[in-house]
Design goal:
This protein has about 475 residues and is mainly alpha-helical. The protein is about 55% helix and about 5% strand. The protein is built from 15 helices and four strands. Strands 1-2 form a two-stranded antiparallel sheet. A two-stranded antiparallel ribbon has the order 3-4. Helix 1 packs antiparallel against helix 15 and helix 5 crosses helix 14. The longest helix has about 35 residues.
Length: about 475
């Protein structure tokens, strides 16, 4: 009878131990739901984000206020751009991925297979983008990111669309008319996200961008044009950081992806000037797109797929001539106030040289996928600069402006990336700040929560087994 009573006592102890485990697990999952509100795969409950008006009034050096930007982005720009970049014309980008760094030996430390770039499937690749004599790789079109050299489609582009020109961009380092060693990349198969590219090599890229091209900032000695260059780079940097944190590998062992809110806060949200610069860059690029509206409307978005091409043309017109955009923010940025005075032409050449240097630094990025998005977005920003500052006056724009297909693809994809970042900051920023600044007590990392769960289970299992 004594032995039976002891056995029953131990059994009850194990049951209570298991109940304690599940109770603790439930409490921890609740904490995870709070600390990772928007993390895919981690959030258990849908919560309404806080739309606190931290950023109000006119965006500095622009002609539109934060509230209008957020509203237009949500109602007009974001949905249109999301659809536009998926079309065949805007899906493929021509880029030289393998190029020597002109400043230092490449020692990139990219430890994830996500650093490399997927091949373009032949079935999706527009015939007009390539020469008829070239044949795509017969390999399986499934993403081959694990290959050491990150094999991608090496089709040479020597046939431009009708109505498109082969002209170099004076603001960027790459020769956009040189088609040698160019690769077509399907941007939809190669999203901008965390790749594991970290450490000194990654830091050196941004250190060089700032130290070599914006060394005086925020000195009062800087003129307006030099400040704008810094703000453009800072805004682009903020957007890239947001995309890395928004799609982050939270647990490599289980291939768990989600939002790294701590990283997003540490790199962007805790610095109001970086958020403001993001909005500035967004409006700057939007101004370039709206200024070139007539030019872009009449361009031929021909990929030999009539249905998709008509859809692309329609989406372009809907975006460029949306009445809400034209009424609320007709001139997002006023470029006419720059390059004035006797030193104007000389100053433009200096800043143009600095931006070309930034473009060249992108060749030193040691991660192939990071290099892809770095080169695309810098070309997009260079195209915006080309539209705003390489042609004098709106009335002469159609006669003098010449854009390549690749420049337009980069420009619209950059605007889409900035639009995504602005949307995330507006919708999630206040909630993330509340969590990270201690207004809601929670662990700073979802990985720590998972580790706490694993440790707790092991300890409770050991205790129950020994009872």
């Amino acid at each position: 009878m004594v032995m039976k009573a002891e056995i029953e006592t131990k059994a009850r102890g194990k049951r209570w131990g298991l109940m304690a485990v599940f109770g603790a697990l439930f409490a921890l999952f609740i904490a995870m739901a709070v600390s990772s509100k928007a993390s895919t795969g981690l959030s258990l409950f849908r919560q309404t984000p806080c739309h606190c008006a931290k950023y109000t009034g006119i965006v500095e050096d622009c002609c539109c206020d934060y509230e209008t930007v957020d509203r237009l982005n949500k109602e007009v720009l974001y949905p249109s751009l999301q659809e536009l970049v998926k079309t065949p014309f805007f899906r493929y980008f021509k880029v030289k991925l393998w190029c020597d760094c002109p400043f230092w030996p490449d020692d990139g430390m990219c430890r994830l297979r996500d650093c490399s770039v997927c091949e373009c499937p032949e079935s999706e690749f527009p015939e007009l983008f390539k020469e008829p004599r070239n044949v795509l790789s017969p390999d399986d079109p499934i993403c081959q990111e694990g290959k050491p050299q990150a094999a991608v489609d090496r089709t040479i582009d020597s046939k431009a669309f009708r109505g498109w020109t082969e002209t170099d961009n004076p603001w960027t380092n790459d020769d956009e008319t040189d088609n040698s060693e160019m690769t077509y990349v399907n941007l939809q198969l190669n999203p901008e996200r965390y790749t594991g590219y970290t450490g000194p090599s990654a830091r050196r890229i941004w250190d060089s961008v700032y130290s070599e091209n914006c060394p005086k900032y925020p000195s009062e000695e800087l003129c307006q044009e030099e400040k704008i260059l810094y703000k453009l780079i800072s805004g682009l940097h903020s957007s890239i950081s947001i995309h890395i944190a928004a799609e982050y590998l939270l647990d490599e062992a289980t291939n768990l992806w989600g939002q790294n809110l701590s990283l997003m806060y540490d790199r962007v949200l805790r610095y109001p000037d970086r958020v403001r610069n993001l909005y500035f860059t967004y409006l700057f690029v939007l101004r370039a797109v709206t200024k070139a509206a007539d030019y872009l409307e009449h361009a031929e978005y021909d990929t030999a797929n009539p249905t998709e091409d008509l859809k692309t043309q329609s989406l372009i017109r809907q975006l460029l001539f949306n009445p809400k955009l034209q009424a609320a923010c007709p001139v997002p940025f006023d470029e006419a106030k720059l390059w004035k005075g006797q030193r104007g032409p000389e100053l433009k050449q200096e800043i143009q040289k600095q931006f070309r240097n930034i473009s060249a630094i992108m060749d030193c990025v040691g991660c192939e996928k990071c290099r892809l998005w770095g080169k695309l977005q810098v070309l997009g920003l260079g195209t915006a600069l080309k539209i705003l500052f390489s042609v004098d006056g709106q009335k002469h724009l159609l006669q003098n402006l010449q854009l390549q297909r690749n420049e337009v693809i980069a420009l619209m994809n950059l605007l889409n990336r900035l639009s995504e970042s602005v949307k995330f900051v507006h919708e999630m920023g206040p909630s993330v700040e509340m969590i990270m600044e201690g207004q809601i007590s929670s662990p700073s990392s979802p990985n720590k929560l998972w580790e706490m769960i694993r440790t707790f289970i092991v300890k409770k299992t050991e205790v129950s087994s020994n009872q």
